[in-house]
Amino acid sequence: MRNGVLAVTRDGTVVEVNAEAHRIFQLKRTAKVVGRPFTEVLAKHPDIIRVLHSAFELSHLPNRAELRLRSTGKVIGYTLSHVKNDRGKSEGVVIFFKDLTKVEQLEERERLRDRLVALGEMAAAIAHEVKNPLAGIEVMAGVLKRQVAGSPDAQSILTDIINEAKMANQIVHEALEFVRPIRLQVEYTAIADVINDSVSLAESKMPRRDINLQLHVDAGLPPIQGDHHQLCQLFTNLLINAFEALEGKGAVEITAREGVTEEEGHVPGEPSAPVRTVVIDIADDGPGVPGDLRDRIFNAFFTTKDTGTRDMGGGLGLGLAISAGIVRDFGGTLTGANGPDGGAVFTVEIPAAEAGEAECPMPHLT
Questions:
Q1: Which pTM was predicted?
Q2: Of 4, 220, 243, 360, which is least packed with CB atoms within 10 Å of its CB?
């Protein structure tokens, strides 16, 4: 069954649990589950324990409900049902549930696209109204600077005016880059080429000094369908982000491997199909991502760079948002978390090229 099933008797003993329930609740297949109290089996999932406890007290159970498991972050949709004997007396409860995490992610992507459309219209209007006055300020300040060449104080003030105008113009430019639709030149691309070029670009923009950079790319990775330039921008941004967090001292490790994810069937009831992916991790041993900010780091215009947290895009709060948008355009995902030994790990997962197509040769990584 594609749905998880867990049956519990009235005294709280588990009498049935299927393979999908094992997967969603992360239960070990080798562990004995049937015959044990459900409070022990689901000790790591107090949300589900509360749902099952309440099921024995309610006469009318919810037909459809959703719940986010705090233990794993998964979103499940579930239905509860009483199991009755021939006399109509309840002898237990069955919970049927389905992993809706991917559905939730797709809905969030749609909501984000709607917000970006409105943001794009606003940014375009602002750009037209602001860029021309900024250019005028910069030009007039430059002219005035030449006319007062003999006054050091005036020179300093006018230099500040010119620099501030350039900074404001850069902010407008970055906002437009974020909301402007990306014109992709999609082609079969070897991820090793992308990583090599990204490392070179990142080092040219921000010298890594004493940072130890290690690359681990599995041989024989399948190619991906993507825009080489946009992919380089993505990984360059993530590398610069790591370099900034380390402040010139530490270690960054890039790993690339083949992965697999499940794609939901297009017809209800149709089994999900495994999809080959390429997974790239960029890990550093820096301060990591504060737990209270982890859900907000990919939001546009969110930045706490002045307080030492991670961000890119000139302090405007667009770097990670731009990176996430690039990954979405290729049908992939970008996630950020803290590593088991500290530091931050950003993971990019992109679908591989369709099976049957010729694989790109994997060049040697330097």
A1: 0.52
A2: 220
- pLDDT score at 357: 47
Cβ–Cβ < 8 Å for 173, 316: no
> Looking at residue 71, what DSSP letter applies?
T
Where a domain ends, among 143, 163, 179? 179
Query: Residue type for 323, please?
Result: S
The side-by-side arrangement of strands in the sheet containing 14-17 is 14-17, 4-9, 90-99, 75-84, 65-68
With CA atoms as reference, report the closest residue to 324 among 357, 286, 343, 297.
297
pLDDT at 181: 61
Cα 69 to Cα 23, 45, 47, 50, distances in angstroms: 14, 7, 7, 12
Q: Which of 71, 99, 127 is the last residue of a domain?
A: 99
- 225 and 325, same domain (yes or no): yes
The amino acid present at 45, given as its one-letter code, is H
